[in-house]
């Protein structure tokens, strides 16, 4: 049993609220530790601390700030296995997948080494007689990130790396389900040379989140989690005058055209549908084969591959395709949704509901499930299941296929598998979804592009990482200057124009 407190002022501190949450080992179902849940007063103290440290950090030149990110990248590589192990133990994902989680965050840290370049402004000489105009990007001050359980390394880094490289102080409120890795990341940032108080991890639940949303000294909030909470965060944060970006849930479709390479499409679906037990916002959860003949070929090839998926604890290393779900509650919810699909008349062609992991009978495992004949009106089609469940929704032609993701509530990711450039091009242009894959099942953009869904998958107008990461955590100031001869000619009383 271990206890996780907070990371404030450059060190681990114990929680003082008297409230805590249990941390489970998802593979065994046992409680392995506890995490403190911050009170308003603890959040306020962390913000005060961050506020005091921020001006000196903002005044540190961007090249020196970038060097901290450089060193941080080295340390992440040094501690990769340690971080991945801690991550798998609390999240349940496989060890190679946990390393991927750290790696995709590391790549954002790597991108943020470009801070001096990303923070450059613009300059127009001679915009009027003796007048120059220039713009500068300045940090906001104290900013925050509230992150989900499913990527406890990557998503915190998506948020704090650009914010800190830009000169802000940061309050991270990670998921209470798997809090160890965010604490380790904060320690590594200190080891990399970050001054105390610039990155603070305040653990907690709704209470800590509300304290962030209402804190007058927090200027911006970046959120990732489920859509209902994203909407809430966006509404409350904006009404308090903060800058807010809030990314939500997903239901990602993959369209399989009749000319697609079926073996490649099936492999793609297996990885994207069942990897991380489906607990990814970019998981493919609906396969849309075009035409009955394509659908029959797809199902025939999918069934044996789904049945052959290897499930187990992270300690089994490369021998396992996916692990348990994160909590007992998540396991019950997913099993309930599979029951609902059967009631609604979808055809459950692979039934993983009775899966039991030998030696881990109390773990939060769910076996792989595959539904055929899923239709638009069903709850299992409308709802984000977030488990190892893939639905096949048959479409008679391309137009019917594209209409499914277009009319769905969510708009995070989507993919098309085809050999036809014309279809792929039309699809990429018309689809109303933020991230599109062409013969690529999980089109997660690399660190130097931006990540963000549309419709109910994202609220706010700037994406995460890439250039938008810096834009979100900075503001532009535009300076119009005239030196010094303009003044000696005397005052002007009419508005200056360029005529
Ligand atoms: P969640 O919404 O339950 O929790 C996210 C964060 O919000 C956590 O830090 C949690 O403590 C906090 N929170 C939970 N309930 C709250 C409440 N009532 N009031 C205030 N704060 C609250 O999400 P989760 O289960 O941790 O993560 C899974 C979800 O995140 C899925 O829906 C998934 O699609 C989504 N997700 C989206 C993206 C994206 O970029 N769009 C990426 C990863 C995950």
UniProtKB/TrEMBL annotation:
Residue ranges of domain Aldehyde dehydrogenase in the record: 16-479
CDD domains, alphabetized: ALDH_F6_MMSDH
Keyword field contains Heme: no
Keyword annotations: NAD, Oxidoreductase
InterPro entries: Ald_DH/histidinol_DH (IPR016161), Ald_DH_C (IPR016163), Ald_DH_CS_CYS (IPR016160), Ald_DH_N (IPR016162), Aldehyde_DH_dom (IPR015590), MeMal-semiAld_DH (IPR010061)
Top-level taxon of the source organism: Bacteria
Protein's UniProt keywords contain NAD: yes
E.C. number: 1.2.1.27
PANTHER family tied to this protein: MALONATE-SEMIALDEHYDE DEHYDROGENASE (PTHR43866)
Protein name per UniProt: methylmalonate-semialdehyde dehydrogenase (CoA acylating)
Taxonomic lineage: Bacteria, Pseudomonadati, Pseudomonadota, Alphaproteobacteria, Hyphomicrobiales
